[in-house]
Specification:
The structure holds two protein chains of two kinds.
Chain A: H1 5-17, E1 23-29, E2 36-41, E3 50-51, E4 74-78, H2 80-91, E5 100-104, H3 113-120, E6 127-133, E7 136-141, E8 144-149, H4 150-153, E9 171-172, H5 188-194, H6 198-209, H7 217-221, H8 246-259, H9 269-273, H10 280-295
Chain B: H1 2-8, E1 10-16, E2 20-25, H2 43-46, E3 50-58, E4 64-68, E5 76-81, H3 83-96, H4 103-110, E6 112-117, E7 143-147, E8 152-156, H5 159-167, H6 179-186, H7 201-206, H8 213-220, H9 226-230, E9 237-244, E10 247-254, H10 275-294, H11 304-308, H12 315-324, H13 326-329
Parallel strand pairs in B: 1-5, 5-6, 6-7
Antiparallel strand pairs in B: 1-2, 3-4, 3-10, 7-8, 9-10
The chains are: A alpha/beta, B alpha/beta.
Chain lengths: 321, 330
C-alpha cells in the first residue's frame, strides 16, 4: 500500500499528541495541483494542510538546519533521496539525531512538471490530482482522467534512483518499494561526457555555464551545502567576483561540484531549481562516479560509514602524487 | 523584415536556447515566436547583469588614467516584448530617470525602439490585468504587432515607432479592413486571466509589518536570487572594482535583497539578519515602498517569480492574502 495524505496526517497527528515532536516539516498543496510548498507545523491543529503525492519534489532535509536551535524535537518526512541527505547531515554533525524524528515515505518516483505538461499537452490549471499507480500515474483532469507512463514523465534523477526507500527513519509510512523497474544505467550521461574530447567538453560547458545568472539557487537548495558562510559570499577576501562572466561562473560551478563530492545524493534539487536549465546533475554524477570508482563509496547510505574526503588512510589511493 | 532590422540595428529578440530568452540576433531565422513570455525579461538590455562603468590604468609614472567604458550608442530594436515587460521599463524609468539620472540606462532607453507582440494567450501564472495592463495593447511600446491569424496588424504609437515603420515600409501592406475585428476575436483567449484586488494594498501592507504572516514564508525561502533576477522590475545593483597592477575597471552588477550580504555592513552588523526580514523587504518594496515613492506598485504580473520559485513562494497568493485580510488574521 502506498502512503496517502490521510495516513500521513494520522501518523503525524499522533506524533504531536504523544509529545514525540514539537514541529513538523512536510508538504502542503501549492499554487496549483502540480506544485507543493514546504510547510512547517507547530502542532496538530493544522494537520489537514499536510499532503503526500507524486509531485512532492522538494528535498526538505535542508530545513533541518533552520530547526537546529529550535527547542523540542522536529519531525520531517523524507523520501529515499531526502533520507540520504539526512544521513549526510548526521555524518557531518550538522544535526543531532536525538532531536530529529524521521518519517520515511517510500517513493516510486516524482513527476517532472514540464515533462508531464508536454507529454499530455495540457496546462497546469487542468490538473486536479496525480496519483501513483505503480508503473503509471493516474492524472485527474478537470474533464476526466488519463493514465500516463511513469517513464515518460518522471524526473530524470528518479529514472536512475536506486534508493526509493529511506535508509534512515524512525517510522515508515506506506510499504517499501521494490527496485524500480525502469532504472537504467546510472552513469550513461556521464559516459557520454567522458567520451568527448577536451575541446568538445569545453565547448559544451562554456555554452552551458555562460548562461548561469548566479542566482545561487543550486547552492541554496542543496541539502549538503551547509556552510554558514559560503566562500562565494565572503567579502574579504573576495574569492570570486560578483561580475557575471564565464570564468567566474566556471569557478563557481566547479568548486560547488567538488565540494559536494562524496556528499551529493543525486536528489536533483539543484537542477530542478535552476531557472536556466543548466544540466548540473551531469557535473554531480561525474563526481559521484569518480567517488564510486576511486573509493567504492556511495553517499547517504550508512551514518557510520566515513566519508573518504574527510578521513585519512595510510593505504589511500595516491596515484596523482 | 527581421533580417532587414538586424542589418540596420542591434536586434534583440526571443531566442530558443536552454530556455527562451531575449538575445542579440544576426538574422530573423534565429528568432522564435513560440512563447508566451521569455524566461528572462528584456531588463538586461537596458540594465545588464554586469556592466563596466569605466576603466582605470596606471603607467610607470604612477599617474592614473580614467577612460569611460561607454560604447557609442548604436540604435537597437527589441522585437517581441510583451505588455508586462514593456510596463516594467516604465517602472524602471522612475528609478533610473528619477532624481538621479543614470546615463548608462537612459542612453540605451533613448536608442531603443520597442516592438511589442500582443498576447492572446496566457500562462497560469500570469496576472498582469491586476496592474491595469492590457496584454493585447501597445500602451508602453513604440510599435505593436498583433498576430491576427494569416497576418500581423502593425501599429505605431510613438514618433520613434512611426519613423521606423516608414523606413521599412516595403515590408508592410495596406490594411484589409478586418484586422481590428480579428484582433477582438482573438482576445477571447485572454478570458479567465487572473485579476487580483490591489486597491489600497500599500496601506494594508503597512499594517502587516509586524505579525506572524511572514514567519512561514521566511522559513520557506531559501534566499536564492531567482525571484529578483527574473523580475523585470527589480533593479538593485552593487558596484565593485577589479584592480590589477597595471589598472582595472569599475563595474556594477545585479544584486539581490534575498542575499544576506546585501545589507551586511562593514562592522559586521546586518540590519536584515534573517531570511524573514529579507523576504519581507522584497514584498514591502514591491507593494508599499515603491508605491510610496512613485505611486505605482513594482510588479507587472509577469509571473516569472511564481513559476520559478523552487519553494513555491507566490506573490499572487501573497497579494490575495493581504487584500482579503487573511494575512492579518494568522
Amino acid at each position: 500500500m502506498k502512503a496517502t495524505s490521510a495516513e500521513l496526517q494520522t501518523r503525524v497527528k499522533d506524533l504531536f499528541e504523544d509529545g514525540t515532536i514539537s514541529h513538523f516539516i512536510g508538504y502542503e498543496t501549492g499554487s496549483d495541483s502540480l506544485r507543493v510548498a514546504p510547510c512547517f507545523l507547530e502542532g496538530s491543529q493544522e494537520i489537514g494542510r499536510l499532503v503526500w503525492n507524486p509531485v512532492c519534489a522538494n528535498n526538505l532535509a535542508k530545513y533541518l538546519l533552520d530547526f537546529k536551535n529550535v527547542p523540542g524535537r522536529v519531525g520531517i518526512m523524507v523520501k529515499g533521496c531526502d533520507s540520504r541527505s539526512v544521513v549526510e547531515l548526521l555524518k557531518e554533525n550538522q544535526i543531532d539525531r536525538d532531536r530529529v524524528f524521521i518519517v520515511g515515505v517510500p517513493c516510486s518516483g516524482i513527476v517532472d512538471r514540464e515533462k508531464l505538461l508536454q507529454v499530455m499537452g495540457i496546462s497546469p490549471t487542468q490538473v486536479v490530482a496525480v496519483q501513483d499507480e505503480g508503473d503509471s500515474f493516474l492524472v485527474t483532469l478537470t474533464d476526466g482522467e488519463q493514465r500516463v507512463d511513469k517513464e515518460k514523465v518522471l524526473r530524470d534523477e528518479c529514472l536512475v534512483c536506486r534508493y526509493p526507500n529511506p535508509p534512515v527513519y524512525d517510522v515508515l509510512t506506506g510499504e517499501t518499494v521494490s527496485r524500480l523497474p525502469w532504472v537504467g544505467d546510472d552513469y550513461s550521461m556521464v559516459k557520454e561526457q567522458e567520451a568527448l574530447s577536451l575541446e568538445e567538453k569545453a565547448t559544451y560547458w562554456n555554452r552551458e555555464l555562460s548562461q548561469c545568472i548566479r542566482c545561487y539557487a543550486c547552492r541554496n537548495i542543496c541539502p549538503v551545502c551547509t556552510c554558514s558562510e559560503c566562500i562565494f559570499d565572503k567579502k574579504a577576501p573576495r574569492w570570486i567576483s560578483k561580475a557575471n562572466d564565464l570564468s567566474e561562473n566556471l569557478v563557481y560551478h566547479l568548486i560547488r561540484a567538488f565540494h559536494v563530492a562524496g556528499r551529493c545524493v543525486d536528489c536533483g534539487e539543484c537542477e530542478r531549481a535552476c531557472p536556466m536549465n543548466i544540466p548540473l546533475r551531469r557535473l554531480n554524477k561525474k563526481v559521484e562516479k569518480d567517488m564510486l570508482e576511486l573509493f567504492n563509496y556511495t553517499a547517504g547510505i550508512d551514518v557510520e560509514q566515513q566519508p573518504p574526503l574527510t578521513t585519512y588512510r595510510v593505504d589511500d589511493l595516491d596515484e596523482f602524487m | 523584415m527581421l533580417d532587414a532590422l538586424a542589418q540596420a540595428y542591434d536586434l534583440i529578440a526571443p531566442v530558443q536556447g536552454n530556455n527562451i530568452s531575449f538575445r542579440r540576433v544576426e538574422s530573423g531565422s534565429e528568432v522564435t515566436l513560440d512563447y508566451i513570455n521569455p524566461m528572462l525579461s528584456a531588463k538586461s538590455t537596458f540594465f545588464p547583469q554586469t556592466e563596466t562603468l569605466f576603466r582605470f590604468s596606471r603607467d610607470d609614472s604612477e599617474e592614473f588614467g580614467i577612460e569611460p567604458a561607454r560604447e557609442p550608442g548604436r540604435s537597437q530594436v527589441i522585437f517581441g516584448i510583451r505588455a508586462c515587460d514593456a510596463r516594467s521599463l516604465r517602472l524602471m524609468d522612475m528609478v533610473f530617470d528619477g532624481q538621479h539620472k543614470d546615463s548608462y540606462y537612459l542612453d540605451r532607453r533613448k536608442n531603443t525602439t520597442l516592438m511589442g507582440l500582443a498576447c492572446f494567450d496566457y500562462l497560469e501564472t500570469c496576472f498582469c490585468p491586476t496592474f491595469g495592463i492590457d496584454p493585447a495593447s501597445g500602451e508602453d511600446v513604440d510599435i505593436l504587432f498583433s498576430d491576427v491569424g494569416d497576418r500581423f496588424l502593425v501599429e505605431a504609437f510613438t514618433e520613434k515607432g512611426t519613423a521606423l515603420l516608414e523606413r521599412f515600409a516595403e515590408f508592410f501592406a495596406e490594411l484589409r479592413g478586418d484586422e481590428e475585428q480579428l484582433r477582438e476575436g482573438r482576445k477571447a483567449g485572454l478570458a479567465g486571466m487572473k485579476r487580483l484586488d490591489v486597491k489600497g494594498i500599500a496601506d494594508k501592507m503597512a499594517q502587516l509589518y509586524e505579525g506572524p504572516y511572514w514567519d512561514d514564508i521566511g522559513t520557506r525561502c531559501l534566499g536564492c536570487g531567482i525571484c529578483t533576477y527574473l523580475c523585470p522590475t527589480c533593479h538593485c545593483f552593487d558596484i565593485a572594482d577589479v584592480s590589477l597592477d597595471e589598472g582595472g575597471e569599475r563595474f556594477r552588477c545585479w544584486d539581490s535583497c534575498m542575499f544576506p550580504e546585501f545589507t551586511l555592513m562593514v562592522s559586521g552588523e546586518n540590519p536584515r539578519p534573517n531570511q524573514k526580514a529579507r523576504v519581507q523587504q522584497r514584498f514591502f518594496h514591491k507593494l508599499k515602498y515603491f508605491h510610496d515613492r512613485n505611486n505605482e506598485l513594482a510588479c507587472v504580473g509577469c509571473g516569472r517569480c511564481v513559476r520559478h520559485c523552487p519553494v513555491n513562494i507566490d506573490i499572487a497568493q501573497i497579494i490575495d492574502d493581504v487584500s482579503s485580510g487573511k494575512a492579518g488574521n494568522e
